[in-house]
Amino acid sequence: MSHATFSTPDLTVFCSLDELGLEVVGQHIGHDRAVLECRRTEPDPWCHGCGAEATSRGTTARRLAHEPFGHRPTTLLVRVRRYRCSHCGRTWREDLTAAADTRAKLSRRGIRWALEAIVIDHLSVARAAAGLGVSWHTANSAILAEGHRVLIDDPARFDGVTAIGVDEHVWRHTRHGDKCVTVIIDLTPIREQTGPARLLDMVEGRSKQVFKTWLAERPATWREGVDVVAMEGFTGFKTAAAEEIPDAVAVMDPFHVVQLAGHALDDCRRRVQRDTFGRRGRSSDPLYGARHTLHTGEALLTDRQRERLLRLFADEQHIEVEATWGIYQRMIIAYRHPDRATGKTLMQKLIDDVTTGVPVALKEIRKLGRTLKRRAADVLAYFDRPGTSNGPTEAINGRLEHLRGSALGFRNSVNYIARSLLETDGFKPLLHPKMRRAGLGPLR
User: What DSSP string runs through 33-46?
Assistant: First the structure.
């Protein structure tokens, strides 16, 4: 700070109005907002038809919401000069396209502030509208339009993608209408260890055709560059990828593989509970009381949890639960093994064990074995391709849950998709002030 160069205070520069071609000529500080009276920096009195100098015919006022300073909205009261050419009779007004679009209610700096508030600070549209001093619909329309223009519609955001993840996401909980969207994640930064994964796109609906159509819309060169597709157990995604990007390797990510084993463990516990007591579990029942402990990795169990499981498995009625729990734990050990080659061997042995010679009574393990046998190549492919887990998808889902909460829900899927793309930090490096000063991704 001691080496900073100071200059004469200038309200025009402080408010960044020089970037808009405006200068401040007056101010009014009200109790609810600050109003800055502005004029265009360079008048334009020359007729665009004949080139003669025109006569000023007064001014007209135009109000633009500007970026706020503190908690008080700032409004620009722009005095727009009107001219009439005495030679050819032509009339016109000064051009303000540098400051705002035609009929826009926000200045360009105001729109930029609102977009950064959404993308960087994760504010709600209501809070951004309050900061600008405009209605929610005005702010929302401006933010989405600018977000599409400079970020979402930029084709360069798909460049350099070599690994993608695909998953479903429930965006609304209603009885009517499509509740799911298909989420496509860029896992390339995770594989290359250059940064976090990012939300690449989101498509309404959840089916093979939805994902297949999205892939078909991408350029052929882009599809050829994708060599890995991480996905859940839904076979529709696998079929779509095989048809549109046949050279890409399908990877069934660990999150959903372990989830399958977890579901088998829960189904077995519930079945044994019903067979033993003839009813659903209650808080006093051992199986119900241990439902969370059963899903804890063995290496992470506390002494108290170990004692609970020992008492649970000491009962011969729970032997099927113990067997299913053992399969679940073996799967976790395979994925957590520090040596991927050893982990792959352990997983292959597990798949072999659950697909042959399993007693008929262990119906949940037999069902799990059929799934793992059918998707064995996809499950084992993970160990040869690190960084291809759909785990980042679940992290992004957490951001989307926060978005829905701050917005109090969504009814329009188009708006939800646009807001999701802006909310999940994928565009944050392009807008962050430090990034812009470093010359990385300037806002156009």
Answer: -EEEEEEESS---B
Tokens of 234: 């839904």
pLDDT tens per residue across all 444 residues of the chain: 567 788 888 899 998 898 899 999 999 998 888 999 999 888 877 777 777 777 778 888 999 999 998 888 999 999 988 888 877 877 778 888 889 988 899 999 999 999 999 998 889 999 999 999 999 999 999 999 999 998 998 888 899 999 998 988 888 877 777 788 899 999 998 888 888 889 999 999 888 999 999 999 999 999 999 999 988 888 899 999 999 999 999 998 888 899 999 999 999 999 999 998 889 988 889 999 999 999 999 999 999 999 999 999 999 999 999 999 999 999 999 999 999 999 999 999 999 999 988 999 999 999 999 999 999 999 999 998 877 877 787 788 888 888 888 888 888 888 899 999 998 878 888 787 544 543 434 444
Backbone region of residue 150 per phi and psi (left: phi > 0; alpha: psi in -120 to 50; beta: other values): alpha
Residue 169 φ/ψ, nearest 5 degrees: -145, 130
- Indicate if 166 and 227 belong to the same structural domain: yes
- Give the three-state DSSP class for 85: coil
- 5 by Cβ neighbours in 10 Å (0-12 / 13-18 / 19+) ranks as exposed
Q: Would you tell me how many other CB atoms lie within 10 Å of the CB of residue 235?
A: 12
438 inside domain: no
Same structural domain for residues 259 and 361?
Answer: yes
Q: Which of 109, 79, 117 is nearest to 17 (CA)?
A: 109
Find the domain containing 307 and state its range.
254-384
The CATH number of whichever domain residue 223 belongs to comes to 3.30.420.10
Distances (CA, A) of 41 to 9, 22, 60, 208: 18, 5, 16, 57
Same domain, yes or no: 360 and 265: yes
The number of distinct structural domains making up the chain is 3
Phi/psi for 136 (5° steps) reads -60, -45
**Domain match, 96 and 186 both:** no
d(CA 35, CA 65): 9
pTM of the model: 0.80
CB 120 within 8 A of CB 428: yes
